[in-house]
Structure formats: C-alpha cells, structure tokens
Predict the structure.
Amino acid sequence: MDKKIAQILKELGIKAAQPGTSTGVRWLKSAGKDIASYSPVDGSLIGKIKSTDRKAFDAAVAASQKAFLQWRTVPAPKRGEVVRQIGEALRAKKDALGMLVSYEMGKSLQEGLGEVQEMIDICDFAVGLSRQLHGLTMHSERPLHRMYEQWHPLGVVGIISAFNFPVAVWSWNAMLAWVCGDTCLWKPSEKTPLCGIACQNIVSEVFKKNQVPEGVSSLVNGDYRVGEWISSSSQIPLVSATGSTRMGVAVAKTVAARLGRSLLELGGNNAIIVTANADLDMTVRGAVFGAVGTAGQRCTTTRRLIVHESVYKKVRERLVKAYAQLKIGNPLNAANHVGPLIDRAAVQQYLSALKKIVSEGGKILVAGGVLKGNEFGSGCYVKPAIAEVRNNFRIVQEETFAPILYLIKYKTLDEAIALQNGVRQGLSSAIMTSNMYEMEQFLSAAGSDCGIANVNIGTSGAEIGGAFGGEKETGGGRESGSDAWKVYMRRQTNTIHYGKTLALAQGIKFDV
Ligand code: NAD
C-alpha cells in the first residue's frame, strides 16, 4: 500500500484488522464476518473490519438508550459546545479524512475534502442551532390560560448511510441529533466501512475529553441485515436512511409497521432544462460537472438535459467537445476530472444501461466503455457517455448510478417541465435561463416537483444551510439546514391555567 495512505490510516486510528462495533468508549467483540474494504482507486485491500453480530448490536442499542437518559438532560448549548469541538477536530483532520474518503470511495480528492468541509459546516450550523430550538407561544381561547409548544429530544436515532457520501450524510444527521439531545447509532455502507471507523475515532476523542456518556455515538457495521435490525428495533424511534429507493421502501415498511418515524433520502433522476435564453458557457460547465462529477455517483447527479430545439444542436456539439477533454484516472491526482466507479457490480450496471439505451432506440453520441491498462488497475474506471433518448424509455426512468447523460429535445416550456417531472423520482432540478418568466414558471407551484429547484446552477452541490431532500420515490425526507432539526425532536403542546375556575375548551359546560 502507498506510504501516504498507510500514514493517513495511522493518523485516523484505523488498524489493519479492526473491530466494527463501538459505543464511543468501548469497541465491542463480535463474531460477525469480516468486511474487507478494497479501494476502487487501485484495487488494494485497505483494511478489514468485523461486522456487528446480534449480541453486539443489542449491546450498542442498550448503551445508546442508557446514554439518552443522561444526554437529554444536558442543556442544549452545552451539547452544542461539544459539537463545536467536533468541528475543530474535523478541521485538524480534514486532509487525512478527505484523502480516506477519496481513496475508499473513489471520488476526487477535491470532492473528498469538500465532503469533510460540509461536515465542518454542519457542525457550525448545529452549534448555532443549539441556542435556537424554539417553539411557539399561542393565544388561548380561554381566559387566564397560556399555551405554548416545546421541542424535546426523541431518543436513539438510527442512521443508515450510502457509500457515495460516506461521511457527510452521517454528520448532517448526527450533529443535529446531538444538539437536539438524541443519541445516534450509525451503520455506514459496507462499501466504505473505514470512513465510519475514522469518524467514530474523531468523535470519541472529543467525547472522552468532555465526559460525554458512553453510547451517545455508537457505530455498528454490516450489510442490509444490520440495517434491518435498526429498522425493526422498537428502541429506535427515528430511522434516517440514505440509499436506493429499493432500500427505502424496505425500511419505510418495517419502520411504519411499528409506528416509528423514518427520514428517507433516496434516489434521484435529476434534469437541467436548457432554454433558448440560457448562457451556454455556464450551461455546459454546469452540465458536465453535474454529469461526470463523482463519476455520476451523486444522488444529485445530472442525468437528463432537456434542451430547447433552437439551441439543441449547439449544446450537443459543445458537450461532445467538452467530453473529449475529460481526463479519467486516479482521483487523488488533481489533474483528473473523473475517478472510478465504486466496484465491479457498478461497472456491470453501467454497461447494461448502455445496452438498454440502444435496444430501446436511443442514439449514443459519446461512447462509453471500460478503461483497461496499468493505470486503471482496479477495473472500475469507465468513460462518461452521452446518449440521445426519449424520456419515456424504461432505462431513462431509472437511476443508473454512473456517468451517463441523456439528451432530450423540447419545444415549449410546459413540455420541458412535464418531461422534467415525468419520472418517479423528485430530488434535484435546474433551469438555465436569463428570462424572468421562464424562471418563475419553473419555480411556481406548476413548475418543478422536486425538493431542490435551482436557477443558473446545476443539480448537484447543495449547501448545508437549506433543507436537503426530495419528493416522490426520493422519499420525502429533509436533512441538514432550515428547520430540518424538527424531525429529530418531539413536539409537546402545553396549556397552563393560572385561574381559579376550570374552563373547558369550545365553551363546553360540565358542572358537577
Ligand atoms: P443502497 O441502497 O445499496 O445502500 C444504502 C445503505 O442501506 C447501506 O448502508 C446498506 O447496507 C443499507 N441497506 C440496504 N438494504 C437495506 C435494507 N433492506 N434494510 C436496511 N438497510 C439496508 O445504496 P448505495 O448503493 O449505497 O447508494 C446509492 C444510492 O443512494 C443511490 O440511489 C443514491 O441516489 C442514493 N443516495 C441518496 C441521497 C439523498 O440524499 N437523497 C444521498 C446519497 C445517496
């Protein structure tokens, strides 16, 4: 293994054979099977961890529940102070953690560092929030009564995360949940387990210094079975699950059957509408970054470009030219634009999608294919492709987690909006235009049906200050900024009577 990688593993406290279950104070023994983490960058084995068995899982849940009883009584601004220190610890480890994200997941180093920056940003956001967990006061209809609402901590929050944002998505949940007074039990993706270990080590050090009780941050590891234990545990009132729609449906059913709460952040099928009034320089830059960044493995990746017929030919030509300039290779090398897909299964899905496009009548404009040769040792590097398609192709309706961009032509804006909304997913969307009427139509109630609708920027790269998430098969959850914190708390309405005679609401008389 590269010396530099060995050094960052050491800095992040990751051992070659690593236990995978932690309560923040102890690493728990487990008889679970080994999970090996191979880098998609060069195919090297980075390390092995033990997955969590049922006994260790139950012990971690029990520790989180016990910790909750104490953590909920700590004043919120004091909890915020601990999160502030996590932000500082992340600043100190930004380079090492960013590089691990890049090496274990395969995104570019810039994007790996960007992901850690998002974690730092959400820490800052959560610190401010710890003094702003406000409720409302309401006027009572009864004399000498006062009504208000307060927000209380909820309990253990189960977090199930996807491979493509191996650290940031957890932090969006955990930092908010912690200032809200909850404890967290996290299952990272089995494809990026070492990123989870690194985060747990960083947080545990801060927690130890602040005598935070054992179990406020618990880590479990394993595949979908451990995820199912989380979904079915009645001791976990909220399950926040990020991943495919298939996974979200399974989680939603199990959690609903026990009347728990779920927060779902699932697949997207995002489009940019390019109108006749678009700045084409900006459009091409935004579309290319949106389509090939993270090798097309972002939930907000631009998958469809819906282009007005008057500029279609120009956009097509410029895209083909831009794709010819793309450099594909080791994501740790800043000169490369596109890194590898996560694993061979992802490569197979990409190849199968390319075949389906052709069999459904699509036309390939920029050919795809797998890159071979020494510098592409892992076998997971693929060429970004572009195809002309129709929106109703079955393959276009699906989210293929790979760099394939679909071009679709339109005549009227109503038609473009209908095409943009004409998929089962509803995460991110954008319009490129300098025309105010087009912009407002796109943003109106009759416009984009997505959770995110942008103007003159692409579909990917959201800031933490806004609520993040989407509609329809994307799951309806909102995380991160705005008032997303409310999902991590329970609302209580209080009515206080300070008179001498009991008065009933709605003027009901009840004299005894
Ligand atoms: P995935 O669904 O295969 O796995 C995600 C997580 O769910 C993993 O930790 C996995 O072990 C777990 N899991 C799988 N089946 C489960 C089940 N039945 N019960 C409980 N847990 C289960 O997804 P992936 O391949 O890791 O990630 C890619 C997907 O995630 C894409 O669809 C992408 O759009 C989506 N994603 C969405 C967002 C968002 O915010 N909307 C963010 C990142 C990724």
